[in-house]
Design goal:
Blueprint lengths: L2 H4 L3 H4 L10 H8 L7 E2 L11 H10 L12 H11 L6 E4 L2 H12 L5 E5 L5 H8 L3 E5 L8 H7 L4 E7 L11 H10 L5 E5 L17 H4 L3 E6 L12 E5 L1 H10 L7 H11 L2 H24 L4 E2 L5 E5 L3 H10 L2 E2 L1 E2 L8 E5 L3 H14 L8
Parallel strand pairs: 1-11, 3-4, 3-5, 5-6, 6-7
Antiparallel strand pairs: 2-8, 7-8, 9-10, 10-13, 12-13
Length: 372
């Protein structure tokens, strides 16, 4: 390493970079495949593509891309205010919800303080914590999900943030609204609780809860959401946080002024007005999840019940199965980095994509992984 790099803080040099899902273009180049024939079920993307209303709005926004975007995101904030009943000063916009999570860390963490998150939780939490030199506190998981009692017990005097994903990525596990509310009431008000609800739009009716009114009771609550999943705008990178105005104000002080581009803002506003698209996304996902679970169960494989648009399946020698699936033109996500070396995470696709995955999996999964 060159001398200049040695001057970077040790916590920066110790970061293991986030590894995204393999793009279809990359696999096509590596193996000489036709990209059109590749099925990508690796990154929890919406297989429907974007809302037609969003496409119209984004095309119109292209006419003005010579101008900088609205740094305050007025139109998008107005749409979010109408949807969620919050004030303008409670909203923080981000370049995807990952950006918002990093803003929380940059605002409230520093060397000498700590943050709590669960084992098997979203990799961006430890990355955000380490990037500012704060201390990690990883709590044991409970059935591959958050153990709220363990997380509450892990809070120290120097703890500033607790991260919770619901549903959790990559495992898809779920915490009820009642359990979350009980946790919030047990956490000291000096500790920020980040409730990452990136997949909340996929929840079935019987699982849904409304966290937005909790903001009035818990000024230390930050709710993060994204347009990358159920709203189908992953390529545009637009997310947001809802928080107490004092918390949002601090986060907006460290936010880059043009972190959400004009096209993304226009598409997000249009998405919020397309409930038909959102309902179709949810229905397609529910049908696909049912078929995927039936398929892997028929193969004698274990899976983790999921409330997201993805699920984890236990295949034994996961790196080998992953590589074998790639050779069949099917991209999924190994989750060894999440301390789950025998598991693959699989996004729910369209019907034909799901069937392609199940067929490929049947051809490559070792007999030792099956419990029939």
């Amino acid at each position: 390493m060159i001398d200049a790099c040695e001057q970077a803080p040790a916590w920066i040099r110790g970061i293991a970079p986030y590894v995204p899902g393999k793009p279809a273009q990359e696999l096509a180049r590596e193996m000489g495949m036709d990209e059109a024939g590749i099925v990508k079920l690796a990154s929890n993307e919406n297989p429907l593509g974007p809302s037609p209303k969003a496409l119209v709005a984004m095309r119109a926004a292209l006419e003005d891309i010579t101008r900088y975007p609205d740094g305050n995101g007025f139109d998008l904030k107005q749409a979010l205010m109408a949807r969620y009943g919050v004030g303008m000063g409670q909203i923080v916009l981000g370049n995807g919800s990952n950006d918002v999570l990093e803003l929380v860390a940059r605002t409230f963490l520093a060397p000498g303080v700590s943050a709590v998150y669960s084992k098997h939780a979203f990799a961006v939490y430890p990355l955000s914590v380490q990037s500012v030199g704060a201390t990690h506190i990883e709590t044991p998981a409970k059935n591959f999900g958050h153990d709220l009692a363990a997380m509450a017990g892990a809070i120290r005097e120097d703890t500033r943030i607790v991260f919770i994903a619901n549903p959790n990525n990559p495992t898809g596990t779920f915490l009820s609204g009642a359990d979350l509310l009980g946790f919030l009431r047990a956490v000291p008000r000096r500790v920020i609780v980040v409730l990452d609800e990136a997949y909340t739009e996929y929840l079935a009716q019987e699982d849904r809860y409304d966290s937005i009114p909790w903001l009035a009771e818990f000024p230390n609550l930050v709710i993060t959401r994204t347009f990358s999943k159920a709203y189908g705008l992953a390529g545009l990178r637009v997310g947001f946080a809802l928080a107490h105005p004092d918390v949002a104000d601090l986060m907006n002080r460290v936010r880059q002024p043009f972190n959400v581009n004009s096209i993304a803002q226009a598409g997000a506003v249009a998405c919020l007005g397309d409930d038909e698209y959102l309902a179709r996304s949810r229905d397609i996902n529910a049908q696909g999840m049912q078929r995927m679970v039936e398929g892997v169960t028929a193969l004698g494989l274990d899976h983790i019940p999921s409330r997201g648009n993805f699920f984890c399946v236990k295949v034994g020698a996961a790196p080998q199965v992953y590589a074998d699936l790639l050779r069949q033109g099917v991209i999924v996500r190994p989750v060894g980095a999440y301390a789950m070396p025998e598991w693959l995470r699989v996004s729910i696709g369209l019907s034909a994509e799901n069937e392609r995955f199940l067929s490929a999996l049947a051809a490559v999964v070792p007999a030792s992984a099956r419990h029939r």
